[in-house]
Each structure stands twice: as structure tokens, then as C-alpha cells.
């Protein structure tokens, strides 16, 4: 988890190199910017769009200059693995927590002109830093479905994950929580293999009466990087 937090700090460091006027004199500041009367909201201003473009250019630059990362040694005596369980439409998925920075409440996502990919939804303001938002539905090749109404109160969330060029936001419909799964169950699901149409999936396993897709984090994060460059 610390590596992910470091990635988020790097995003804030990069934000310091951008005149984040929206936090000082714009909609999130004292609202003294003379352009607010014309644009109503900072996201409609060319300065904000230019800052978002610089953010996406940073992802491209990081991809061109990859850094060597240390492998995480899970150890031979590990018997469980922590997975974050979440829902997209009617489908439940699991992602290992080592690539997760945090789970946050859903924030407004501001679309950008001239989108670079179909998966790129836009950018969100995460504690003052612009973070790219991607559609997991598009990345995983899922069919868009209407809203699901499960029992109880359900709050959509944002998964902030650590990609190669920095953290990215992945909106999801519901988060069940983090669960320790028996490694033998994961090994069995991986050996059986996913369905041919299940993109970026290690296997399918039962969980709380559901069929849960265990996502391959390396393939998924690679697809995230490609969508930003």
C-alpha cells in the first residue's frame, strides 16, 4: 500500500509544477478569477483543459522512461491473498490489494475534448491533483448495463490504483470490501482458467454465492497504461 501512496504523492508533486488556479482563485478557491463569470466552472476553462492535457502527457513520458520496480516477494509460506471485491453492473470482480492506493467516494469526472481513447472518461480532482479516470467496463470489454438495485444502501466508489505513470481512478458501482482468500482456491481457479471471453482474468471462483472474476492485475495495469499513452 505504501508504494501506491507514494505514487499519489508524486501526482501531487507534479501538480505543484502546474498553476492549479482552480484551487486558489477558481471554483475550489476564493472564486476571484475574472474568467469565472465567463466560464461558470473551471472545467470549462482552457487553463484547466491544458493542465489536464499536461497530466496525460506525463503518463506518456513515464511510459517512455520506465523505471525498474522491485518485485514483491510473497513468500512460500503465504496461505491467503488479499483481494478487493467490487461490482460493475451485475458482475463481481476481485483485484489484489497490492496495486490499490485507496478506495474513495465517487467524485465528479470532467470529460476532456479530443479524448485519447474510448476507455478514458476524463479527469477527477483527488485532493487538489488531477487524476485520469478510466472505464473498467470498456477495458474489460463488458456490456454496459442499466443500474442494479440490490438490497440495502449501496454507494458507488472510486478505486485509485497505482499504474506505471502514476495513480488512476477506476469508478465502480459497489465495493464489498477486502477479503483474505485461501491461496489454494486461487490456484485452483487459475489452473482451471477463465472463459475465453473473460479479458484480463486469472480465473473464476465462488464467493458468497456469487461467481467472482479474479482479475490479472499485470494485464489490467498494462491496458491502463496503453489507454493513457
TrEMBL record:
**Cytoplasm listed as a keyword:** yes
What GO terms describe the biological role, i.e. biological process, of this protein? chemotaxis; signal transduction
Q: Which domain of life is it from?
A: Bacteria
Q: Where does the protein principally reside?
A: cytoplasm
Pfam families registered for this protein in UniProt: CheW
SUPFAM superfamilies the record matches = CheW-like
Keywords, in A-Z order:
Cytoplasm
Its Gene Ontology cellular component terms are: cytosol
Q: Which residues form the CheW-like domain?
A: 80-226
Provide the protein's localization: Cytoplasm
Q: What does the record list as coiled-coil region(s)?
A: none
- Put simply, this protein is called Chemotaxis protein CheW
State the organism of origin.
Pseudomonas batumici
Amino acid at each position: 500500500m505504501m508504494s501506491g501512496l507514494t505514487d499519489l504523492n508524486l501526482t501531487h508533486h507534479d501538480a505543484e509544477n502546474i498553476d492549479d488556479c482552480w484551487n486558489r482563485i477558481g471554483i475550489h478557491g476564493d472564486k476571484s478569477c475574472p474568467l469565472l463569470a465567463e466560464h461558470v466552472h473551471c472545467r470549462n476553462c482552457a487553463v484547466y483543459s491544458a493542465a489536464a492535457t499536461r497530466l496525460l502527457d506525463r503518463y506518456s513520458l513515464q511510459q517512455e522512461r520506465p523505471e525498474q520496480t522491485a518485485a514483491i516477494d510473497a513468500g512460500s509460506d503465504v496461505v491467503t491473498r488479499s483481494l478487493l471485491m467490487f461490482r460493475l453492473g451485475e458482475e463481481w470482480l476481485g483485484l489484489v490489494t497490492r496495486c490499490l492506493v485507496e478506495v474513495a467516494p465517487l467524485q465528479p469526472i470532467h470529460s476532456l475534448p479530443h479524448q485519447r481513447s474510448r476507455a478514458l472518461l476524463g479527469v477527477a480532482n483527488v485532493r487538489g491533483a488531477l487524476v485520469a479516470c478510466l472505464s473498467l467496463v470498456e477495458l474489460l470489454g463488458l456490456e454496459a448495463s442499466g443500474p442494479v438495485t440490490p438490497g440495502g444502501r449501496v454507494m458507488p466508489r472510486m478505486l485509485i490504483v497505482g499504474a506505471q505513470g502514476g495513480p488512476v481512478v477506476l469508478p465502480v458501482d459497489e465495493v464489498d470490501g477486502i477479503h483474505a482468500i485461501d491461496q489454494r482456491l486461487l490456484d485452483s481457479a487459475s489452473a482451471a482458467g477463465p472463459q475465453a471471453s473473460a479479458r484480463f482474468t486469472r480465473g473464476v471462483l465462488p464467493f458468497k454465492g456469487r461467481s467472482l472474476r479474479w482479475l490479472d492485475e499485470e494485464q489490467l495495469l498494462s491496458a491502463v497504461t496503453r489507454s493513457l499513452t
